[in-house]
Amino acid sequence: MPMASQPHSAPPRSMKRSSDWRRPAMSPWICRSGFSTPAVPGGRECERLGRRMLGRRASSIFSSPCRAALACPDHPSASRTNRESSPHGLGLSRQAHAIFPKMREIDAIVTPDLQERLFEIHPELCFVEMALIENVEAPAGKKTSAGVEQRMALLEAVGFAASSLCDHRRSWGASRDDVLDAAAAAWTALRRAQGLARFLPHTPPTDARGLRMEMWI
Question: Any idea where the domains of the chain sit in the sequence?
Answer without folding.
Answer: 26-216
